Amino acid sequence: MELQPPRFDPYSTLQQSVDEFADMGYEDRFEVISNTSLRDSKGNEFKAENLAINKIKRILNKENESQKIVIYAMVTTTGEKGILIDNYGEKGTKEINELLLKVESKDPLS
Asked: Are 99 and 36 in contact (CB under 8 A)?
């Protein structure tokens, strides 16, 4: 019997999660370049006020539960969709955390 909707698997692999986001249109990989901006794979730079977080997914490593990863699915004001990957908790990147505090969270359906 399949559950509807399927349960969230916190132990899915990073690649499975990246593939899931790509299937939803979040194909680009964003890179933080300062605590106020990031860039896409084409070199375009976006300030925090030009970004929105649509979804967040946390992943636990089955073999090493102290390894925790978070993926942020983001969209820019010009429509580029991509993901930003970081550790979460105590191992999270300070610069990424500072940037994300300035970014709006937004339901992609609104």
From this structure: yes
